[in-house]
Amino acid sequence: MKKVVSKNNRGLTKSGPLLLIALPGIVYLIINNYIPMFGVFLAFKDYSYVKGIFGSDWNGFDNFKYLFRQDALLIVRNTILYNLAFIVIGTVCAILVAILMCELGERFRVKIFQSSLLLPNLLSWVVIGFIGYAFLNADTGFINKTIIRLFGGSEVAWYTTPKPWPFILILVYLWKNVGYSSIIYMASIAGIDKSIFEAAKIDGAKKIEQIRYITIPMLKPTVVILTLMAVGRIFYSDFGLFYQVPMNSGALYDVTQTIDTYVYHGLMELKDIGMAAAAALYQSVVGFVLVVTANAVVRKIDRENALF
Amino acid sequence: MFKQTDEKRFRIFSTVFLSLLTIITLLPIILIVIASFTDEKSLLSYGYSYFPKAWSLNAYVYLINQSKLIMKAYGITVFVTAVGTVTSVLVTTMLAYPMSRKNFKYRHLLSFFVFFTMLFNGGVVSSYMMWTNIFKIKNTIWALIIPNYLVTGFNVFLVRNYYSNNVPDAIIESAQIDGATEMRIFWKIIIPLSVPTIATISLFTALCYWNDWLNGLYYITKSELFGIQNLLIKIMNNVQFLKSGSSNYLGVGNMNLPGTSVRMAMAVIGILPIVIIYPFIQKYFIKGVIVGAVKG
Q1: Which of A143, A213, A278, B85 can pair with A43 through a Cys bridge, CB separation 3.0 to 4.6 Å?
Q2: Residue range B36-73, pLDDT digits in tens
Q3: B67-245 architecture in CATH?
Q4: pTM for the whole thing?
């Protein structure tokens, strides 16, 4: 009976009206996403403001040659190393927080802790830049004026001293994101069959053993999939973190410049459109290959969680 | 007996550890709040501190006197957030709905069309050149609303999955048999059924617009069009900018600018709305994160 209705229904469903409903979204994506894909030809031009987008001369791979001779190694290294640090340390911290949260047992406490840990995630990078400034600013910052005075040592001009920045950026990343990513792991832990823990308890397993032999192995699929997805995005960085937190300080570029901030500088500050476009295209292409590869691997492991 | 104490001990450890972590997480935010209430002189000589030597409301008094500038920036941010969120939700659900219809001929094609935008992009440079050269969007309010955020593949798939799982085919079929048009089905049946998913994407989109400063950074150079985030950037770079915002009302323009504490007061004003509505939205936010992470 149901089949008959469906068959009738196929006749009732006309494509036209449905396409019309989707039309505003289609038009938007064509403009916002598809047209710029064709704009990548700018990477092969010697852009001139006078001659414009189409009038500028072609220069083949010159922009890329220049990019790879100059800065490519540094910005790619920074982007990848920071992302690796974020993936490894971020995952460990998020799982730790999630496990401890699930041991609290009491809803109210979970809610308080979770809200507080999530709060930094709702702040904009601009505000986080302000917070960083309150700590790091050389003349009045909390670290120079209070911490260093308390524990001794000499004041540091933080915004011009590159050395501590990898540490600072990782710390700020964790501060903003651990609460957020722990939510996903908490959901996974909540999904584990309670009877497994009960059985382990009856067999005399201590809490720490239950975590070691039940919780962590059960989290493995989630970890693998989230990690692979993050690896697929390893060529992209959070622009706000690397631009606002170091206050766009030139002295720190060696350790804070990623592909995204580099493209911004090229486009908005140096006005070197060709090279910025070359860096952006390089990022898009490698990023595309990585996402597709990561997805293929996820698909092999667990078809359900693959993007496609 | 033994198991009981083991479990209890672990619970105590968790509570202590997470309490410490919570305090550490909140301390940076507390610092800027305290700094905004710190006397400027005390700030300059002793630095930002949790226990300031002298408290003062001067930063806020100053900002109230300059409120024209701040209210304007707030107004722009509120407008951009409201218009952006409503438009985004409308266009996103309209795009997601046909993708969820099992007997829509172009369903897979449309899904791929949306999906591909999540895999590949033309990069900031070509998108910037397009918006500024072809659409002439620079220094218009639309620059804050239209580029990048209006429709995201992530949201579209979130809504599509919701429809696929929660809207029974039978409802649509019976409406079709009754002669309802597709538009009518969408408005009268689908929209009322999608309240939870609309709540989720509205929340994410509104947060995204409220916190956005990138579109402003790229496309806005006129300070009249600054939203609250871009005003903050401007003030961080040049605190004197605050003086330009207002008349010499009561000679305020000449009043000594408590530059250091005023910056922090501005940041506090930027966070305030989020902190106020946060307790009400937290539940939906967490739900959205879980749904989005597992199947985006």
Answers
A1: A278
A2: 999 998 988 898 999 999 999 988 998 888 888 889 99
A3: Orthogonal Bundle (1.10)
A4: 0.91
**Domain boundaries defined on chain B:** 67-245
Chain B residue numbers with beta carbons less than 8 Å from the beta carbon of A305 are 294-295
Chain A residues touching B43 at Cβ < 8 A: 140
Q: Which residues of A touch B110 (CB under 8 A)?
A: 22, 26
Kindly state whether A191 is in contact with chain B, defined as any CB-CB distance less than 8 angstroms: no
Residue A294 and residue A228 in contact, taking contact as beta carbons nearer than 8 Å = yes
Residue A245 CA to residue B81 CA, distance in Å, equals 24
Where does the pLDDT of residue B293 fall: very low under 50, low under 70, confident under 90, or very high at 90 and above?
low
Homologous superfamily assigned to A61-305: MetI-like (1.10.3720.10)
- ipTM value, please give it: 0.91
Q: Do the Cβ atoms of A47 and A271 come closer than 8 Å?
A: no
Give the closest of A105, A118, A140 to B11, CB-based. Answer: A105
- The ranges assigned to domains in chain A are 15-57, 61-305
Query: Which residues make Cβ contacts (< 8 Å) with residue B237, sequence separation at least 6?
Result: none
Other CB atoms closer than 10 Å to residue A210's CB: what's the count?
Answer: 19
| pLDDT tens by residue, B9-43 | 889 999 999 999 999 999 999 999 999 999 998 98
